[in-house]
Amino acid sequence: MNPPDRIPVCLLTGFLGAGKTTLLNSLLKQPAMIGTGVIINEYGSVGIDHHLVESAPEDTALIADGCICCTARGEIAEALLSLSQRMQERAQTALQRVIIETTGLAEPWPILMQILRTPELAERFTFDSVVTLVDALNGGDTLAAHDIAVQQITAADRLLITKTDLVSAADVDALQAQLTAMNPDAEVSALTPGSAQPSLLFTGGRHDPSSPQFRPGALLAQADTLRFVPASAHSLRPAGSPPPREQDIQTFSLILDQPMLPGRFYGWLEFLRTLCGPTLLRVKGIVNIDGRPGPTVIHGVQKAFHMPTELPAWPDDDHRTRLVFITRGYGQEIVTDTLTHLRACAAGSP
Fold first, then answer.
1. What CATH number belongs to 217-348?
2. 3 state DSSP class of 11
3. d(CA 113, CA 98)
4. pTM of the model
5. Residue 145 needs a FRET pair 20 to 30 A away by CA distance; which of 86, 211, 253, 292 works?
6. To 5 degrees, how large is the angle CA 126–CA 263–CA 282?
7. Average pLDDT of the chain?
8. CA 347, CA 280: separation in Å to the nearest integer?
9. H or E segment to which residue 116 belongs
10. Has the keyword Chloroplast been applied to this entry (predicted)?
């Protein structure tokens, strides 16, 4: 399929009890969701949630007896291809979009990696968005206690605050500010009962650089005025030092004035990904690669990186590289120190 013809996939995630099934039922009743396939993952040997989702049985697939990101990892490909085949055989409705509802204990990045790196899936499907639900009643306590919830939030393209009718407006505002600080690249919305719309899950390609609907402006607006500065006395995390707190999230951006040589830039990015591991929660940016007429868009969630996409032209007169990072613990020091070394090596090259 050509990129515009691939079937968009939304990953719907959120910690236990965030309201994923309730939201899904509300949306599936709407006419705009005709042609939607649903994959539901549950943790445990007996599936329940798929019986609670009000969707036609042939439009629903269950992955039970394990988290979709670990023991059931290989089953997501089979489920997606099976859904596509079953709905293609029905004369009434072809598969137009897919929602993957994960267990509340799922890490998003292995699911992203599987679709991005499985050729038969990449040919037919495209990731449209990661949507994470956050419970307004318990969200703050959950973030403080569970690292999985942090990973789900920092991986999101959109954050939806649920159960807002159970707390005060001030509590909702405070949680919204906390989520924005953790993931400034995501759109944050507070839901009231019955207010959800299908557009909250599917963007129409606005996040996909290969789509005609892609709009880089929102990404560029997130890059603040923090500029790259030479590393100070701090260095990489000392051996044997205690790990950072799970909720110790940093969000920052780097703005580089000079074009980057492709070999050095991608080598640095791969080194950074290997060095930081799970502390590199997310990186997204628009990069000026030396010799290219337009910018290169990169997007990664932990170890799952999309293939870089080259845009035919710059969206405006600002041709600087802008990178937005979400890291945990010592991530910012590693980013700045390794980039200092990269630039020093480049300056010393003949």
1. 3.30.1220.10
2. strand
3. 17
4. 0.72
5. 253
6. 45
7. 75
8. 27
9. helix 108-117
10. no
